[in-house]
Structures
1.
Amino acid sequence: MTTPTLTPYRSRLHPARAGFGRLLHAEWTKFRTVRAWPVVLGVAVVAVVLICRLGASGSSTSGGGPQTFGPGGERVVDLFRFAHRPLTGDGSITVRVTGLKSADSRSIEPWAKAGIIVKQNLQEGSAYAAVMATPAHGIRMQWNFTHDTAGSASDVATAPHWLRLTRRGEHLTGYESADGRTWSKIKDVRLPGLPRTVQVGLLAGTPAHNNVHRAFGGTSETYGGGLVTGTYDHLALKGTSTATAWKSTDVGGPVPNGPTPQDAQPGRTNVSPSGTYTLTGRGDIAPAEDGPDMVQMSFQGVFVGILFMVALGTLFVTGEYKRGLIRTTFTATPARLKVLAAKTTVIAAVTFAAGLLATAVGFSLAQSVLRHNGFTPPEFPDLSLLQNPALRAVVGSAALLSLVAVLALGVAAVLRNSAGTIAVVVALVILPQILSFAFPLPAAQWLLRVTPAAAFAIQQGVTRYPQVDHNCLPESGCYPLSPWHGFAVLAAYAVAALLLAAWRLRRRDA
Amino acid sequence: MSDATIEVLDLRKRYGRTLAVDGLSFRVEPGTVTGFVGPNGAGKSTTMRALLGLDAPDEGAALIGGRPYHALRTPLLEVGALLDAAALHPARRGRDHLRWLAHSHGLPAGRVDEVLEQVGMETAARRRAGGYSLGMRQRLGLAAALLGDPPVLLLDEPVNGLDPEGIQWMRTLLRTLAAEGRAVLVSSHLMSELEDTADHLVVIGRGRLIADTAVSDLLAAASGDRVRLRTDARARAMELLTAQGATVAVTGRDTLTVTGLRAGRIVELLNADDVPFTEVGAHRATLEEAYMELTRDAVEFTASAGTDEVAS
């Protein structure tokens, strides 16, 4: 046994605490110094920008017909049968709705409407508030197209129901009653700038029937028809009116949306001697959701950018496992979860920064191309990069790219193998989109709810209103979840992958 | 600050059905180069991984300065390790590899240049690691181990792939590092590589300790009472000495190795019988011979060791 005669050696370097900032610095150095990685990131930016721009140049519009805009500037549909009288100053209208049924050969639309309305004037798109009965959604109070409040679930097909709307200045209050004696308030709303004299009366309308034929590679979607009859009695108007008789108008003209204009007939109004009003009308009072989504159209390159992000997130981890470098990493930093956190932070930051550059430039280029191709105001208002929905879509798409890279990193830390990781992440993010085109609609929508592909909802610029039925067709770029809910699905997957990775890192030998 | 020691206490590690390390204990003191020797699969790398906190021991402990690795705040300043010289990203420059390591401990950039100079890699470090020879990788790995100027060094087969000049350089470096008061543990499956380098030896086989001894003691024991004899009358000398109870082995055209008689007695006997000889001297065993003798039992053992050898 050799007896040491020397004093034990001590490092001449100052023991610097291994704080998290230093780990970030180390991981950033790792990323920066494998030249292919920053290059891939740069190529990804260029690819995303180019494809966003090229994708947009494939879309053009000739402007279509005249458009209607609501008080908030949004595109709306404002077509209905209106039996009306002017009302000056404060007052109220009360009616009992006794029935609402389809007047054509098709079954009634869930959002068909029969009720009472106070409207600024007879012009399409003017301000209004209405209380109405619907076949499938009970009693509703709606105002200025985009707003909707549910009342009771009463169905006028089974029992008549009383509705009342009172006006006091700019305030309109909706009430409902089952018996005409006990009233419950639905909502009090304010219509700013409502003139002293307004039109008040009965309404009948329905959204058009919607026919969809889906097949892999082609979908046809047509709107047309739709005619309903509402029946009313006990109509009472309180307040000052310059007219003594009810007049009927088809707001928006007699030819709203028939399959062929000459087939469309004007609405009808009948008044029986006993005071029963029968209104037959077509058209709808609702926000328009059928136009192209000018925001979403500008992000076609993001789909391709995802592939680059998956590769980066994967290689940043598997590149170390493949050659045993991970042991050097864990020798320098025995706290493995901190290493995972540092790697995640670095990959998230670099991919987000690159993604943001790509989506901001890509979006701006795509917008200018779209404007050149006929997408012009007022039908397609200019979208500011710093305002929603464009801001949300630009930042959200960058965050989407970043989260996909993090998801890949987490999966890579679990599987420790490049090919397997890339296969899993592509199957999770890209495959559902492709399958959704082929699957039956319920299955397709389910896929786009439960897989990370749901996050593409963040790119949607068209607000989906619950009071408007629409076929959420994947091939039309519709995602069933709202933007942030869809984004949260992807975030949940990324977090789950990281937790699984953390659990495996702690448990397994390196 | 902890003592610069390495301690392995009753360490046991099993991978599936294979027992890689089976109750191993030893201690490495500061100021020595300790050779960690055993055939491939003996459990050397497993022990080193356990010391570095990469593999969790099933039983026992592997401690640096009395503490498990994961308890070290700034591990690179306390232990330098070279486990696998191939563990480099081929697209990363050697210098950048050291840079991220330095950043992980907040070490100054100048430190990277210092260790690169110390291992003679100033120029090569500007190239990508994918083009390095095994020797260059070993030097870079050693630079990484020295980066934190640590009092403890764990080096797994560091001379593997070095040219003779490199081996000589490595020997000198290891001796210097130990002379500064560091504890240096160097594993090898070839005892000859440790010749003139190690002060102390820990020999293991099949995960168990075979010997824990100073090199000088081992050599003395292995040299034993053997005497080397050079003579032109080989046959007569053999006959005479065998008759006196010695064991005589022929080791060359005119050389014999005699066991069982001291050198002085051999000279007496040869002179008495007028047997000519040109040289009589104590035999000095090489480390390799000493090792072979030491592991004779283990070799028999290996011969019957079936399929459950562990790749280290």
2.
Amino acid sequence: MTINESIASVRKSFRADLDSFPSDLREVELLRSKYFGRKGLLADLYKLLAGLSLEEKPKSGQAINALKSKLQIEFDEKVTLVNGDSQDADEKSLDLTLPGFPITNGSIHPLQQTLDEIKRIFKSVGFKVAYGPEIEDDYHNFEALNIPKHHPARDMQDTFFVEDDVVLRTHTSNVQIHLMEEQEPPLRFIVPGRVYRNEAVSYKSYCLFHQIEGLYVDKNVSMADLKGILDYFVKRFFGEGTSMRFRPSFFPFTEPSAEVDIWDKKRGKWMEILGCGMVDPNVFDNVGYDSSIWHGYAFGMGIERMTMLKYGIDDIRLFYQNDVRFLEQF
Amino acid sequence: MRVSIPWLKTFVDIKQSAAELADILTMLGLEAEMPESASFSGIIVGKVLKADKHPNADRLSLCTVSDGKEEYQVVCGAPNVAAEQIIPFAKVGAILGEDFKIKKTKIRGEVSLGMICSERELGLSDEHEGIMVLNEHAKIGSNFEDYLNSNFDYLEIDLTPNRPDCMSHVGVAREISVKTGQEMMFTHAEKRHCKKNEVDDILSVKIDDKNCCPRYVAGVVKNIKVGPSPDWMRDLLESAGQRSINNIVDISNYILLEMGHPTHIFDYDKVPSHTIGIRKAKKGECVTTLDEEKRKLTDQLVITDGKKPIAIAGVMGGLDSAVTDTTSTVLIESAYFDPITIRRGAKSLGMSTEASKRFERGADPKGVENAYWRVVDLLEEFAGGEWVPGMIDEYPKKFIQNAITLTREKIDILSGCEFSDTFITDTLSKLEIDVKNDGKNKWTCIPPSFRPDLEREVDLIEECCRVYGYDKIHSSFHYGGLYDLAEVDPEDVLSHISNTMSGLGFRQCYLNSLTDEKTAGLIGNNSVSMKNPLSASLSHLRTSLFPGLLQTVNYNIRNGNANVNLFEIGKEYNSGKEYGEVYHLTGVLHGEWLNKSVHNSERHQSIHSLKGILEALFIRLNVNAFNFAKIEHDHYDFGLSISLGKIVIGNCGKMKKSLLHNLDVDMDEIYGFDIELKPITEEMQFVKKYASIIPYPKVDRDMNFVLDQHIDTGDVTKAMKNTNSKILISVKPVDIFQHESLGENKKSVTFHLEFQSAVKTLEEAEINSAMNDITAIITKHFDAKLRD
């Protein structure tokens, strides 16, 4: 058999196999190696080149190359057709309007997204992030924050007790105390974390939620600085056109204290978003900072509340129900 | 607290609208809101003519209600309905709330032509204990909306606990006056003088514990007549949300709401010892309070008749010594009790009253006397009483108000404003602080006795700031980075892990970390429990993230959400020597990992889809030294441990049916994994070293072995990797084939091997030699046969 006859024979055999193309994947692979494998028919053709003259070699080589690429294309098309299930051969033209493959989507919980966004905003202006324990002693959660036992301010936060003097923290402010006990001023931190309140579960309150605390301590720190950072934060988080209101309030661990509202256009009223104030000198005394030298501000906001306001969510329980129909919207 | 605007206007001129007033107060730190103006359709002021028991139902009443023209039969379920009451009446056709239309109905066989409404049904408050009873002067048949708008001229103030002085109309009016500049029109009742303190002859007061009761003022008024209060007093009380009872009780309530000081009026004749003692209760003592509850006492502060308790000091009076219709002589109590004592006492009894709220926040020790004179004046004027000259004033612990120094330096730093000297002096004076400015940037201030919250310099700075207006403080912004080499955010990595999980098709969950005792004991132990749980189902901190996630799968499937792949990054809690809070990454899979589509058939989740996900996760997190090993595990039907190097960091597998059953989960095919995060995040810290890209070609080979069915492919793969071949860079099984032609219980496994050298192009002979070594080892160790 001449080389050309050999080539023709391979082509013929391939055509026949193509006509009775198997549907079983395993047999397809066998067929593939019959032609394209290391010991396949095409490889055999190349071996024949060795016995040819220098003149014949390039010409025949090209012929085999051409055959190989042609067969490869035909084989691949056939494979695609077979894998494409029951599609009729007439429909083999590419239908670009078909949907893509059904890739499974994941999602990031809206609370995590809000947390990440708030962290990003404060990190961009030089705040670091610190964390602390949820199971906390009474001293760090209350006493050191100027909330003595039997003080009416304790009513502001219904508390879960683990022991007589161990609680599930009611706010992230406990970390203020840990930070100041461990480090010398100046300080610039935000503290996110889970906090607990012994309150009946309803659409507006849950037995736990997440807070972000801010603490800034330096020598010259004023209410104007506090207002400045919150103004910046509110505009970045809620948008530049957001109106903010800063009004007096009371927290045992800040003096003066303030609450911040933003104007909710939809509801037509002010919505409270966070509490803040200048660190109370008693708190500085408790951690051994000299309150005649050091001043500071602190603020705390609820991540759930911020998320609800931002996306118009009206029931806090949705965050903990984890209904896919809720999660997939974020 | 409800503050009546007409009442405020008796103390200070108010030109502003209610809305403007609410705004002024809010910006002063007294968060005020207007009652929501409601509009009603078809609701009128009606009168209950008759209220009899429903013939067929014990808890229902059959009432006759008049609208001034006609009478209607109405069935009412409220316990407080009674004849003669003026009530909001929803006639047939009226609409309540959004779309609740009142229709003619039959209730237990009786026709009902309308409804008598509670405050909640009207959307006015959450009050639903009974129907709303209106002022008896209300015009029957008039529109309820008009009644409401004329009678509900008030603001709701949400007071912070530091401002007991504002728990009164005088206190709130003072704040308004300071801000608006309108003068206060209030003077205390005049102190009376008498030649002889006659009251000493008929009453004695003995304080046992001067720390708990630093001051007790008492006196007697005789020949009083119990009756209705004057209209103006009833109107003011009602506008502040206080119902009128009788002139004596009303006077005490009136003074409470007017000047904020709680007083108590006893029936003098029911304290036959004519002695008042103030001491701690003894264990086992009891007193029945005005609300007709018998209170068992422990160590609360009580008022006694010298022997037994007749009232719980600062909380509530006793029933036995209370004023009744036949009372003719009264004993007036006006005292200052220690805040902590009253708070502990009230809390221990589960009580909170108008009096206790004021005492525990700090009453005015000097207001004690003012309140006494006010009671005497009003009793004489409106109850026909006759004062027994004199006043007993036991004052064993004198109140001392310390002077506070305010410096220019501190106020400038903290406020960030530059207040003028005049502004500071004026503001503090208007707040009734005794101020002396020495002209050298220093103010010496003595706060009034009704401001227990003013103790330090910062407290005075806050006063200046809030009167100045927080809205006028400018905003200053000057932020740059701190020079600090420490980690900016140690938990940043958790967001990275979440994002990776999301990319792998998982939805992130946030789950309640409180659970019940049984669930907390299912997986893990040493759970942390609450001493005062909200409910039995939320009594313990979770010991595993699994239960919540599995129940969330269940919830979602029940609600028609297919293919639920969920994860959470959260803490598990335990109690040992110390409390532990350990971050875990836990995930669950149920359903298909690839849905059926026009392109493909569906693929079910399996232990291998789970394994693939975890492999992808670790590689993306730059954690390469992970491996899996088969384990027996309590909560998996079959499972694998996950190790990092030699440390086991977690596990995965098919969740055990019994566990799912215990958690009330319906599905039985759920796969799960649980990994402790700390080892992972520590591993992630290591900086990867770059390995140069090898320029020499890779050579692929397949090897096919026939093995006993029971041999784990993983073991064979491992054995291949463990041959000392330096050129074998990867092995993985790519095909498993079972056929009877292979022999009984045999399988054929095709392995795909890659060979490469870092220093040269491999020659056929080297590859063949490596493959021969592999064949030798595998055939020997696994009794395998190489298939050609």
3.
Amino acid sequence: MSEMQLKYLHTIRRQKIIINLLRFLVGFIFVGIWEVAAYTGNINAFIFSSPSRIVNLFIEMCKDKTLFVHLGITIVETLISFLLVMLIGILAAIILWIFTSLSKILEPYLVMLGSLPKSALAPVLIVWLGNNMKTIIVAAVSVAVFGTIITLHNHFNEIDSDMSKLIRTLGGTRKDIMTKVLLPASIPIIISTMKVNIGLSLVGVIIGEFLAANKGLGYLIIYGSQVFMLDMVIMSIIILCILSMILYGVINLLEKKFTR
Amino acid sequence: MNNILELKNVDYTYHTPQGETNALSNISLCIEDGEFISIVGPSGCGKSTLLSIIAGLIKPSNGTIKFKGNNIGYMLQKDHLFEWRSIYKNITLGLEIQNKLDKSHIENVNNMLSTYGLERFKNSRPSELSGGMRQRAALIRTLALEPDLLLLDEPFSALDYQTRLQVCDDIYSIIKKEGKTAILVTHDLSEAISIGGRVIVLTKRPGKIKKIIDLKYPEEYSTPFLARNAPEFKNYFNLVWKEVK
């Protein structure tokens, strides 16, 4: 390796270290100001909470294990919704691809459902399905599923018609086009919709828990705000941030594994 | 000689909401077993449509097609090797689709892989191959189904000029070696002329056969690349050029 290259590598490494340091510093300063302001009374800790109060509550709720119950429920609901969204989304997109006229007939309805603010459905779902986990999962699925169907179906239709021609010249049928071209070629887009959907499922689950739950992080947030335990609300929000980051990270790992 | 393919009065009209277009008109053509034929003509004259009709991908509006063989191979402009399959898996795609992954077919594929210098790349991804090698792999994918007639739809047009001359030579010699009948569609006149056999000139839309020109090169100019140096080449070129103009 030449000296120039070594120097170049060195600069890159230094830049990386500085960026990481600054990242940490931004968070640290934010938390620090927050804590000091709450301590000196510049902001009302009862309304704005403070880092130390949040940590105390966190430790307390870890000790009596209630936090794990709420967290666990939210994770389970999110994962179930996510899997259902992907399953329904992929199957529906395939069916629409197979039956072209069906997709033409249903198109306006799909677009309508896709652009509808799904939180509007939640109250109706409570009346129909009751105050339980079913409502939450259906709410979460409804948030993400229509967009998924539309995205995947559009993508299926965009697959190079020359590739389909190739399959036909090799004596293949539409079924071969699906299994040999459509699905393998769609793996990147399926993974990218997964990335969107894991976040949307979490959004849907929290909306559902706001309205129809007695457990879960969404429930903690709504309950905490009603009884003015803002420590609990903000702690739940922070946990949600971390949770969504972890879930996104898992999909990212999956992507690396499948797309090389 | 046996005619492997006979077209009689073939017409083709396609319809769009904007109107109908007469793409091919009254095409009659006989192709003998073992021939190498080139079809040239201005762009949009229905050359590719003609191949699609011969391959049975679309039905002619009128006329009849008689094909005395079992199997037609079709090579498209782009190689369309699938990136998610290895070269070997790409080459056996047709066999996989037609459930012909038996011993003799696989052996045939393996022979072709080693004869045509792709054995080392069996497990490579298409993106690791050069343009010429990719086109060779695409040809082997077509030949794996053991077609009696090969349709080549501007298979070299996506390549740069230098590679194109090489690959043209390459593909030509493979096709000759395997003893296949072939129809090449191209808009490159010198390519068509260098390949020899017969050149069929189509008119502007609707495509009609304007002229059929027989080409013959002396023994020592037996490949397309060498034929470009043959004294006859220039004369043939002028002849074809006059018809295309």
4.
Amino acid sequence: MKRFLILAPALALIAGMAAAGQYPARQIAITVPAAPGGASDMTTRIFTSQMEKILNVPFLVANRPGASCSIGMEYVKNRAPDGYNLCYIPVESVMIRSLGITDISSNDFAFFGRAMTIPAALTVRKEAPWNTFDEFVAHAKANPRAIRVGNSGTGSIWHIAAAAIETATGVSLTHVPFEGGAPAVAALMGANIDAVTVSPSEVQAGVDSGEFKVLAILGEKRSGVVPEVKTAAELGYDNIKVLGWGAFAAPRNTPPEIIAVLEKAAAQAINSDEVKKFFKERGFDHSYLDAAGMTAFAKEQLAFYDEMIPKLGIAQK
Amino acid sequence: MHKTDLASAGAFMAVAAIFMIGAWRFGISSRTSDGVPGAGFFPFIIGLIVLGLNSAQVVLWLKGKGEGKPSFALADEQRDNPRALFVTIAALVGLLVLWRLIFFEAAALLFCLAMNHFYGRGKLFNLVFSLLLVGLIHLFFARFLYIQFTL
Amino acid sequence: MADWLNGVWNVLDPGVFLFLTLGVVGGGVIGALPGLTATMGIAILTPVTFWFEPTKGFAMLIGLWNSAIFAGGITAILINTPGTPASIASTFDGYPLYKQGKGGLALGINVIYSAFGGIFGTLVLMFFSFPLARFTIGFGATEYFALALFGLTMMAAVSTGSILKGLISGFTGILLSTVGIDPMLAMKRFTLGSVYLIDGVLFLPVMIGMFGLGEVLNQIFEHRPSVEAEERSQRRVNLSLGRVIPNWGEIRSSLKLTVICAAIGTVVGAIPAAGGDIASIISWGQSRKWSKHPEEYGKGSLEGLAVSTVSNNSVLGGALTTMLTLGIPGDAATAVLIGSLMMYGMQPGPKMFTEFRPFVINIILLMLLANLLFLVIGLVTAKASAKVLAVNQRTVWVSVCVLCVVGSFALNNSYFDVLLMFAAGLIGFLFRRCGYAPGPFILGLLLGGMLEANLRRALVISQGDYAIFVQRPVSCVLLIVTVLTLAWPLIKGRLFPAGGK
């Protein structure tokens, strides 16, 4: 009996190390906090199809939509940090706390890779009297609240993009919220509003057919969808950088060894040809960041939105 | 006309009142200066309409002196039905609770077995049916659609 | 012409045909199960289709899409629970028909008219896509508001029993639709501090609960052993005599109305964000007003079932119209299809009809073929499906209970949705017992959000000007039609007093 008692902790230690060393040993579940078929969902599915090949374990994708991605993220946050429950983390993670929807934020997760970014694109109709971003701003200055800009919902990333324009240039716009990016684009196409600030891929059809023109990209770099359009930074406005992004993470206290395994696999998966091709087809910007880079990026974004959102006057406790 | 119309009207009016009180707190008149109604405007108005309609209902009930079809009347042969109803509801609650404690397929199996037994179906039928139903659901949802019933 | 012949050749390729069939069968199962939507099926299968070439992949998706909408009507008829929201209106007459022992006939009507609707919608896509899309893209918030208002006037038409109670039921539904985040200001309304109520009272679990579970509970309460045996043997007799196909006279008498409703469905489908649920409810309600036998509606009218099934399938043709010509998704399902097209390197929009014309032709032919395919499969299995439910009622009770739980969970992997469904089931039971129709309630819940959001959005766009509702032609017309619809019974009474109908 005594011998067993002495051996037991040693065995436990060995077992623990073996388990960590053997990670992953069984199916990994990954939660998408959005509905099936959307950008987040498709990105995750193509990512996991690569991860399955690299790590040799099956991945199970579960959709848990609701409350601006809070429900899905809350679910994963509460799981054991053993590396078998992961989450796709979208930009909403750095916004929901200041929006007053929930207490979760990007700080509750341990990132192991960023996959893509989606900049906002200021888009207007082809017959609009503004051909450049400067003309647009000038008109807005002269006619406060005259220009109606559609977005995918009050407090959404695209609303904030339009608000960022207001803050950086000192103009005043009228924001028209819709239930998503597609209805906003439809409204622009039907000439019911004057502009939208949504993702380039959502307006791509209109741009290709000549109905729309994109005045500026409000992000880090030019979009592959409309490569000839300059970013706001290139046009001289440094403070208008609003991006949607998608990254992958595990619950916060996941052991670093496990994160390292995931990071290595994710680097390979995200940078694979299939994933690159997928992003290109869909109009997303492939923007890989490793764990450290993504963690720093998330902190920076959290600070940005913590400051930006209360200024919009919609935050509530 | 039902005998219970007064009670049901009262219930609806209570619900409407709760919404209206909440709506009042959100602010009825415009919050923004361009004349767009505030967050409480719509629920308040609709609540008002519901109150109005139910008042009409109450008036009709009073005029009819509370006569009308009984809502929960039972003929002789139906006398056992309320018990069956309560047992079914209790079993459903049991299913929902058990699901949290053990896994769904087991809870569903127990539910089927219990219900069929209560309804007096044959033991063999009960077993086969329950296994088949839960088995098919598991196959289709968990295996094919990858929707696992984990909470 | 050569393009079309080429297209037919492509589409009749055995590989393509196999995928189409898989899609149709899969869609049939997914559509029939309450809680699983066509969108979910398409989303889950889309990654699978990337392994194959575009025509094959799309064949599967299109087969699934059309078939799911048709199959939603099956459970609507057999257990009063629509398999997809687009089939709500099919419960109004479908379920009474089943209870009268004419389940086989109801299923047959569902198949035939669904196929008719789908083909009609596709023909519109072929010949009128651009004008239709141009018309519906102009729909702004004012038009959506007017459309929602018009849909809501169907509340009275949809109430079985006391109209006052129907209105109470409906407006309470509208009231409940205000729970959640305010669409304009992003304020939390009535969410009781719960994350789960932020998206509001979700429509699908409530529908499953009220129509499915509520009906089961009511049946348990009302069960009469003496009547049961008789009803069951009656059903067996009807099934064996069973015609599944309506006779020619019946088809002819409802021909005009079904064609009109197919058109309504296609137009509504072309409107972004308006789908089969609104289309079929409007069709049913309007058809009842124009019908020669309005008193039969809601009690097992063949015509009533026909118009609701035809319009929810013709929606697909309309939705494809907007999707292909403008690249705008009409609903979640078309959004996924657009994603698929982009993966194949095709850009929906006017360029589709020039650069990728052969593929558009393939899509059109696949739509036609999918409808014909489920027509055949559906008719063949209709009798069998009706027989399946000529079983002991208690088997149905247990199965429906389990399926309602499973279906409401499957939607969002959410336990809360199951609780919502359960509560809705209890409320549905009480509604039925106290004489309140569940139909208007569901209608209110469905359209209330659309009504409010667009009212306020229109005012944001017009910057506070209410006149915009009558200044825009389409919205003005819709509002006038709405007013007329409400006032017609009174006007009729004045114009045709006493002696009139």
